[in-house]
TrEMBL record:
<keyword id="KW-0813">Transport</keyword>
<comment type="function">
    <text>Electron transport system for the ribonucleotide reductase system NrdEF.</text>
</comment>
<dbReference type="InterPro" id="IPR051548">
    <property type="entry name" value="Grx-like_ET"/>
</dbReference>
<feature type="domain" description="Glutaredoxin">
    <location>
        <begin position="2"/>
        <end position="60"/>
    </location>
</feature>
<dbReference type="InterPro" id="IPR011909">
    <property type="entry name" value="GlrX_NrdH"/>
</dbReference>
<dbReference type="InterPro" id="IPR036249">
    <property type="entry name" value="Thioredoxin-like_sf"/>
</dbReference>
<dbReference type="Pfam" id="PF00462">
    <property type="entry name" value="Glutaredoxin"/>
</dbReference>
<comment type="similarity">
    <text>Belongs to the glutaredoxin family.</text>
</comment>
<keyword id="KW-0676">Redox-active center</keyword>
<keyword id="KW-1015">Disulfide bond</keyword>
<keyword id="KW-0249">Electron transport</keyword>
<protein>
    <recommendedName>
        <fullName>Glutaredoxin-like protein NrdH</fullName>
    </recommendedName>
</protein>
<dbReference type="InterPro" id="IPR002109">
    <property type="entry name" value="Glutaredoxin"/>
</dbReference>
Amino acid sequence: MVIVYTKPNCPACYATKRALDKRGIAYQSHDVTQSPEALSAVKALGYRAMPVVVVGDKHWCDFRPDLIETLGGER
């Protein structure tokens, strides 16, 4: 399962979700401004910027099309 932590008005968040949608990759999106649990999860991973993408035990911050590409998907 892919989890994307986002915040409002975040261009990199929008780009990340668009890239996942384009590849047909299912994900759960959590707004850190609306969920204290989501914010705590992001901070526990050591991030302060959005988006944060978590895939199993891997995670990264910012729009990373190179890493999204490695997730596969339908194309």
